[in-house]
Design brief:
It is a single chain. The model is unreliable at about 1-10 (pLDDT under 50). The chain has a single domain, classed as Double Stranded RNA Binding Domain (2-Layer Sandwich), CATH 3.30.160. About 40% of the residues lie in helices and about 20% in strands. It starts with a helix and ends with a helix. By secondary structure, the protein is an alpha+beta fold. The chain contains 3 helices and 3 strands, in the order ααβββα. It has helices spanning about 1-10, 20-30, 85-100; strands spanning about 40-45, 55-65, 70-75.
Amino acid sequence: MAGLLGAFANRFGRARPPRAALDRVAALAREALALPEDATLAVNEIVCADPACPGTETVILVMIPGTRTRAIKVVGEADAVTEAALRAAADDACAARGAG
């Protein structure tokens, strides 16, 4: 059964990112963005097959009670996310929200 579940979870031939990498990105986001204690973060690594997409992205969903959920997309794998890249992506997300 584990083999079947593993094959389903990895249906695109890519290994899941290490939990430690996702946890590191969440901690980095919490500190770099000065999020309140009640903020909930969900970090995932996705691969977009659309040619217009950059390929692999690390997506951080920031959920703060009483506010809209914010999605911050950093180009690249979770292992490679830096504070500078995270801040730039957060700035881009804020600018896009303001323009819409």
